[in-house]
Amino acid sequence: MTDYTIAIYCFIDDFLKKIGRKENHLKKITDAELMTTALVAGRYFSGNHQKAMNYMKDHQGVNMIDKSGFNRRLHGLSTQLNAIFIGLGNTLKRLNTESVYLIDSFPVRGCRNIRIPRNKILKQEIYRGKSASKREYFYGFKVQVITTKEGIPVDYFISAGSFADITAFQAMHIDLPEGSQLYVDYGLEDFYKECEDIQLFIERKSNSKRKDSPALAFIKKQLRKRVETTFSEITAFFPLKIHAVTPEGFLLKIFLFFFAYTLKRVVA
User: Fold this and answer.
1) Cα(98)–Cα(32) distance, rounded to whole angstroms?
2) Measured at the alpha carbon of residue 249, what is the angle toward residues 65 and 67, in degrees to the nearest 5?
3) Can you provide one Gene Ontology molecular function annotated for this UniProt record (predicted)?
4) C-alpha distances in Å from residue 37, one per residue of 28, 62, 67, 74
5) pTM metric for this prediction
6) How far is the C-alpha of 40 from the C-alpha of 109, rounded, in Å?
7) Pick from 1, 20, 102, 239: CA 20 to 30 A from residue 138's CA?
8) What are the distances in angstroms from CA 178 to CA 38, 145, 182, 200, 230?
9) Residue 106, φ and ψ in degrees, nearest 5
10) Percent of the chain, pLDDT > 70?
């Protein structure tokens, strides 16, 4: 845990210095220390900021602020956190010489359907979606993720639970190197068949009229398993219930779990 924490702090601190971000020297805790604490919470404490704050204070010597001040500062730094992730993702794309990428989505449930009337954060019907793999409805968000062939996330897009994957995919700004190969769900092929700089590979349905060769079908199946493993590893960071008091806070915690996982794969 100590090595991970130090590595993440150095990475964030260097990034903030690189972009020329200047801080008020009177602040009790620096932006890099605060972001590191939030990512440590996502990696080791199921998103519990108070436990991460205690750890950073007791084991890393951080001069910690109170919890309400921490949350206000963290929400104010959400744009910078996203910029850091984008910068990391672009670096991983440049290092991915194979230029093979996978895209899929996984649901993040705010509550079960039976609890919708008592939910105080997400109240609109737009958040009700269906998880085909689990054959159940859920209430929350969908996270579209692009990963490398090894399952390391390089880009993401979060949509309301009711959005179909193809709708979210159309809204997502896909920025991959020219000539990349992107393995996607069946329903997206026709929408992007005109794409010139990204070659799409679709996992065919059993009744598809556009059959794959046995070798290509095997490759697609193996890659599909890799992205599903990535989702399982990300959601393993989640608590039984993600605690948040606003939709923005809920989304921020989803992002922090996702970012913490990416950094774990990079640092490991």
Assistant:
1) 33
2) 15
3) transposase activity
4) 14, 9, 12, 10
5) 0.86
6) 22
7) 102
8) 34, 19, 11, 12, 25
9) -140, 150
10) 85
Helix (H) or strand (E) run with residue 264 in it? helix 247-267
Between the alpha carbon of residue 1 and those of residues 8, 142, 219, the distances in Å are 11, 29, 36
Q: How would DSSP label each residue in 67-124?
A: HHHHHHHHHHTHHHHHHHHHHHHHHHHHH-TT-EEEEEEEEEEEE-GGGGGG-SS--S
Tokens of 142: 């969908």
Cα(265)–Cα(89) distance, integer angstroms: 12
Burial tier of 13 (Cβ tally within 10 Å: 0-12, 13-18, 19+): middle
Rama region for 177: left / alpha / beta (φ>0; ψ in -120 to 50; rest): beta
The angle that helices 67-76 and 31-44 make with each other, rounded to 10 degrees, is 100
Residue type, 247: P
Residue 148 main-chain phi, psi, to 5 deg: -75, 175
What is the tens place of the pLDDT at every residue in 97-141?
988 898 888 999 887 767 777 777 887 888 888 877 777 888 889
Strands 198-202 and 180-184 come out as parallel
Give CA–CA dist 40/9, Å, rounded.
Answer: 10
Does residue 140 sit in helix, strand or coil? strand
Predicted local distance difference test score (pLDDT) of residue 26: 76
